[in-house]
Design a protein that fits this description.
mainly alpha
Length: about 90
């Protein structure tokens, strides 16, 4: 998958995860980074642990869902490690 596709999927997944997790968010660039890393994490979880398909493999609903789940897991971990912001 090309870098542009990773950015698009990451943007969508990061934005959705930020909205679902309710928080201040990390801004546009931060949401893209969280989404792309979440896509990698979600893809690894889907393929290695759950044995589901190819993980993130293009701009499609399956890839966005996998990246979204990975981004939510990443946000939970970041919030546990970072503590509460006021």
């Amino acid at each position: 998958m090309g870098i542009l596709a990773w950015i698009v999927v990451g943007l969508i997944a990061g934005f959705l995860a930020g909205q679902v997790m309710r928080g201040g968010g990390y801004g546009l660039v931060g949401d893209i980074v969280v989404g792309v890393i979440g896509g990698l994490l979600g893809g690894w979880i889907a393929t290695s642990l759950l044995h589901i398909g190819a993980g993130v493999n293009g701009i499609n609903l399956e890839s966005i869902l996998v990246a979204f789940c990975g981004a939510v897991v990443l946000l939970v971990l970041l919030r546990l490690l970072g503590g509460r912001r006021r």
